[in-house]
Structures are given as C-alpha cells and as structure tokens.
Design goal:
The protein is an all-alpha fold. It has one domain: Orthogonal Bundle (Cytochrome Bc1 Complex, Chain D, domain 2), CATH 1.10.760. 50% of the residues lie in helices and 3% in strands. It contains eight helices and two strands, in the order αααααααββα. It has a two-stranded antiparallel sheet. The structure holds heme C. Heme C (HEC) binds next to helix 5, helix 6, helix 7 and helix 8. The site of heme C has 23 residues, from helix 5, helix 6, helix 7 and helix 8.
C-alpha cells in the first residue's frame, strides 16, 4: 500500500506543477495597442491628400534631417544620438514591416501630436509637409 501512496503523491504533485511555458496565457497582441487606441478613427482613416513629387520628397528629406533624424537616425534606423541618450525603444523605419500596420492618417496623427516620449510637431510643420513626411517615412523602407 505504501509504495502506491507515494506514487499517487508524485502524480498529484506533478499534476499541480506550474504549466510549461507554452500553456501560459498569451501576452497582449501588441505592446503598442494602448497608445494606438487613442488615435481617433476619423484621423486614422484620413487619406493622404498629397501626391509626392521629386521636389516634395526632397523637402520632406530636409525636414526629416532637421526634426527627426536626431532620434530616428538619418537612415530611419532609430539610432539617432538623442534616442540613444533617451534609451528610447525605436522602430526601424527601414524594416518594411515597421509601418505596415499603420495608415497614413495614423502616421500623420503621430507626427503632429507625438507618441510616448516623442513630442508632436504640432503647428511647426504645415499639414502638407507632414503628409510629405509620411510619404518620406514609407520611402525609407523601399529598396
Ligand atoms: C526626441 C526624439 C524624437 C524625435 C525628434 C522624433 N521622434 Fe518619432 N518617435 C520617438 C520615439 C521615442 C518613438 C516611440 C514612441 C512610443 O512608441 O512610445 C517615436 C515614434 C514615432 C513614430 C511611430 C512609430 C510606431 O509605429 O510606433 C513615427 C511615425 C515617428 N516617430 C515619426 C517621427 C517623425 C516624422 C519625426 C520628425 C518630424 C519624429 N518622429 C521625431 C522619438 C522621436
């Protein structure tokens, strides 16, 4: 009888052991879900009214150089000096999947209003140029 009891005890202990990693509840789908949820849907659904030209992209590149590169890096890799100092977690705009899930309207909203530790450009950059920046950001991931 005794060996049987020990065996059952072992089985019971085994059964109540914490489940293996794979059975633990999945983490929330994306860490960015919360801030994203704050973008009003009419803003997110706004269609980019700007048609890019070589000239408008050149302007966007210049603005990006002044206003964004210190954090997002000249190439969009997210390794700008200021971002490094802030130890900010940056997306890599060169990675085609980085902005794939975002609409132009969402990107416009983030550039205008900011996100997390990034301040928005507000009225410093005209809406037309902000749309150009959206187009420029997307162009960074193209070969
Ligand atoms: C002071 C540093 C800083 C500057 C300057 C800055 N950003 Fe950011 N940016 C960040 C940080 C940090 C994040 C991540 C914020 C978060 O997710 O909490 C971010 C996020 C973004 C995102 C969202 C990426 C995503 O999918 O989550 C976009 C788009 C963006 N920045 C564009 C720009 C553009 C365009 C400019 C220039 C007009 C700019 N940023 C200037 C720091 C900066």
């Amino acid at each position: 009888m005794k060996p049987f009891l020990i065996l059952s005890a072992l089985v019971l202990t085994g059964a109540s052991a914490p489940p293996p990693q794979a059975q633990q509840p999945a983490p929330p789908a994306t860490a960015a879900a919360a801030p994203e949820a704050k973008i009003p849907s009419d803003a997110a659904n706004t269609v980019n009214p700007v048609k890019p030209t070589a000239e408008s992209l050149a302007r966007a590149k210049k603005i990006y150089g002044y206003e964004c590169a210190m954090c997002h890096g000249e190439s969009g890799d997210g390794a700008g000096d200021l971002a490094k100092n802030m130890k900010a977690k940056m997306v890599d705009f060169r990675d085609p999947s980085a902005l794939k899930g975002r609409t132009d309207g969402e990107l416009f909203y983030i550039i205008k209003n900011g996100k997390g530790e990034m301040d928005g450009e507000g009225a410093r950059v005209k809406p037309e140029e902000t749309w150009n920046l959206v187009i420029y950001l997307r162009s960074l991931s193209k070969p």
